[in-house]
Amino acid sequence: MRTTAGPVISGLTIAWKQYCELGWAAWARLGNPVYADVVLSPTGRRADLVAGSTLIDVKVTRHTEESHAKMWLDQVLFYLFRDVDDRYKLDRLGVYLGWTGQLLTVTVDEVLAHLVDDRAASHELRADFYAVIKDDEEEQKRWRDAARRP
C-alpha cells in the first residue's frame, strides 16, 4: 500500500526548518498577544492567527506566483472585513509562507487606500460587507451546527 506520509513529513520538516532559521524572527517583531484559530464574525468564522495587531494567514506551498499572492491578500482582506466590530484592532495583514519562512505584510491603510477615500470609511465598508454576507454566514453556521449534532 502506497502512502503520502513521506512527502507530507518531508514538507513539514522543511517548513519547520524554515521557521527556525527565518520565520521566528519575523513573527517576534509582530508583538503580542498572539491568538490562533481566531473567531472573526458573530457566526464563528475563523482565521489562522493574529499576532500583535497583524492578521495572518499561513500557507505552506512551493507555489508562490503573483496570482497566488493576490488570492491570499483577497482571503486575508475577506477575514479583515469579517471583524466588523474591529475587536482585534488590526492594522496590518500578513501571509506567512511556511515553505520559505517568509512573512509578507501590508498595512490595512495601504490596502484600504485602494478601496475607499479615507480610513474613517473603512468601518462603514466592513459593516456594508457584513450586511451583504450576513444571511449566507448565518445559513452556513446552521449547517455547521447541525453537522456537529449526533
Instruction: Give the C-alpha Rg.
Output: 17 Å
So how many helices? 4
Structural category:
alpha+beta
Shape call: globular
Number of strands: 5
Description of the structure:
It comes from Fodinicola feengrottensis. This is PD-(D/E)XK endonuclease-like domain-containing protein. The protein has 150 residues and is α+β, with helices and mostly antiparallel strands. The chain has one domain (5-148). It has 4 helices and 5 strands, in the order αβββαββαα. It has a 5-stranded mixed sheet with strand order 1-2-3-4-5, sandwiched between helices. It is globular, with a radius of gyration of 17 Å.
Summarize the structure.
It comes from Fodinicola feengrottensis. This protein is of the alpha+beta class.
